[in-house]
């Protein structure tokens, strides 16, 4: 390792060590002003009980091993003088980033307050009133803040109060020097009560994620126009609903039993062992999960004490201030409940039965109960582990009269009331679909067979039809091109495909009942699955449509494969032979073990043994009948994506614009991915079984993320590419999910050919460094996909950065003995550390693809060690790898750079293409890119600027940015047009805090008018055609363009009339 490399690694390791040191103090800990855990006697100092008594108790605790017990009477008061941290909690927050999860920038203001945990052994009528003031006397007589907590609960509850928003007393004119709290029972008919207090935390900032519940209703100022996790409102809607429609109880019971039987089959299977044929290894996984569940049960120290169940304290998943020994409800539920429930149901293990039932009691006691928001229910979406366990144990719970509180809890957490007031003007968050839809159905199935159950099944059917329909604007889930949205952008793995799979699962469960999903839903789910397969090489999709999980881009085998089986079948028969054959092909190439993460309930769930039975049986039924996705072009304008398939070759390209954001990052997630939408063109040729992983790029072994194939970027050092989003006053959630001012990042499909264009603008500003984010960066880029050729053009490449070169990368592969690459037919040495230069030439890459680079361009390539970062366990660490990189060098501070090259698929004679091009470039400037492809008769256009001069071809003028392709044969012409401007409502520089009015506004189409050379008449009726006028030897055509859809317009010269009339 040379000196330069040594220095880089030393600095990188130092940065990592400094980062770990800083982890001791987090955004969450910095805002704590005081805490009470009541583990030491000193923590009781200043606490006085009037007409009541105080003592420490080990009976219940949320922090350590004991709490403070207040035995109060009707006229009692609890006074706390000199509350540590109270003054600071009431002071002005200076502004900054106060949270770890979804960190946002908050301005200067009063956001402080407190979190407090309260426990009761039995519910009490009335309230506890908390008052804060400058002294005990002031707190009693003239408090600055006051709030009340309802006492009608048992078990643990927590209250999160932002003083200024939730507890401020209007007209207060006293001191701001907060020192004391007073707690008073109010409206309590009983003479005495017992309250346990623990884990009291004073804070400079109380999260805006807090949620109202039955104990405390806050008055928070929502930063967004709607709180997606609001839970009290739907619960009240459910409580106030009347269910009195005429009910056929026997029919409801029969249908409920049928659906429940199907679900139980998917989970437990039947008496066969067909599932073993898939060889996923699920039996070993289940054994290890059961072992881990029993170990976790013992670690939690769950024990029954005098009618209650104690154990390690549990906290909400977005509570950033848990007790040191605290664990997260969702994590414990996922790792504990399902394995025990399945073990009992399959093996009748009594210990598993007792443990899962006791654990469910423990959850209720810890506060996971109806009416309890746990402080925040933000991201409380991982409900399938507890719901499936309750479903499997429903008979045992009913025998012990324990089903009702579990059902009430599910009604609360599923927001069942929202079904009764379905708002179809908004899209449904895909988290609530993948994590909540099945849980809603389970909750309904657990109900008695009555009018309520009947009506909720009807409402659930309506809900599922709604979520499987197209959603407006930037909202989740489906778009007209079958993009699947989350976080106001495309998410074609994880969120999106999990939601799709859940919809398909429920479609299968409801099939053949009066609650079956409608024909539109069936069509959309089927089309979305076929689209997923069309954009995948094997099971993998473009890294740039994989959200913040680019290395988890296997969208099918680990996220949605069961859905292909669900939607192929109707009962035991095949509903859709085409989809079934596609499923059978995927079955043959997918990694069996990748499915296991879907076979255990987590955020989403797809069944276990029965699901595998279903998949194996469909495979056996299909035999050798299988087919790959068809050759041709797939365009997804709402994703800024095009995919191209021809035989065993595949290519896919990604861009972004003013409606489609560039990339998403998180803490330890996709922090190298800023350039993924800068025109990254991924090419592959050969066996699809390993997907892109088999092509040799090796993105996690030292890959240079500043030089992505096809992309135009700056050639940056690794530490400049690594970026952790940091909030600031403008980019309140950091510089990611950025939009640009361009409308062009879309494609066109004409038959099996097409094109994709990108008006690349970096509009992120301000940025003091201006390396990774540089608002002077511009480029126009177009790709023409015709037969075995991908013709790549670039122009207008410019930026003001003198430090780093701007490049368009051709290819990048990890150098090893398996990969043989050539330049002009000669092998490229495995270790040629000196940058090589040439004036044109051709590369043959290790996958058999040819890159033809005409002369007059600065062609460079090198095989050398390079420094990067490796992602592992949600963090990045320095790594070195040896890679081959080839690129076109535009130099530092380019003013009007450009490029031209071609990629050949299946070609054995690249020299011929180098010597004699198959196409002519008609135009390559800021107005348009266009080519004439002689052999195919295709002329393609990407028009970036309206009403500009269009040179040398059939398209004379366009009044808007447009993509157009002509294919001429004799006296006929096929004109295909796509408007790249999908017409979404315009928002801001990035997606942060997008208002509801924008999020849920439907996209609008527009009329685009083209002037075409020659006199042409349409040969068939085309709905999108508005007008077509022949004038002065040209044809003026107006088309209504919407959703980026490609519109085919067949044209013909008109001959003379047979009778001589014009």
Quick synopsis:
This protein has 1062 residues and is α+β, with helices and mostly antiparallel strands.
- Low-confidence regions: 1-5, 11-23
CATH topology of the largest domain: Beta-galactosidase, Chain A, domain 5
Helix run count:
25
Number of strands: 48
Under the CATH scheme, the architecture of the largest domain is: Distorted Sandwich
* Computed CA radius of gyration, to the nearest angstrom: 32 Å
Query: Judging from the principal axes of the Cα atoms, what is the shape?
Result: globular
Task: Trace the largest sheet across and list its strands.
Answer: 25-26-27-28-37-34-33-30-31
The level 1 CATH classification of the largest domain is Mainly Beta
Helix coverage percent: 10-25%
Class of secondary structure makeup: alpha+beta
Strand content: 25-35%
**What count of domains describes the coordinates?**
4
**Mean pLDDT value:** 95
Terminal Cα separation, in Å? Answer: 82 Å
List keywords for this structure.
Jelly Rolls; seven-stranded antiparallel sheet; alpha+beta; nine-stranded antiparallel sheet; Glycosyltransferase
What does it look like?
The chain has 1062 residues and is of the alpha+beta class. It has four domains: 30 residues; 191 residues, Jelly Rolls; 384 residues, Glycosyltransferase (Alpha/alpha barrel), CATH 1.50.10.100; 419 residues, Beta-galactosidase, Chain A, domain 5. It has a nine-stranded antiparallel sheet. The protein has a seven-stranded antiparallel sheet with strand order 38-39-40-42-43-48-45, with no helix packed on it. Strands 1, 3, 4, 6, 9 and 11 form a six-stranded antiparallel sheet that branches. Strand 21 and strand 22 form a beta hairpin. The longest helix is centred in the first third of the chain and has 20 residues. It starts with a helix and ends in a 10-residue tail after the last strand. 53% of the residues are buried.
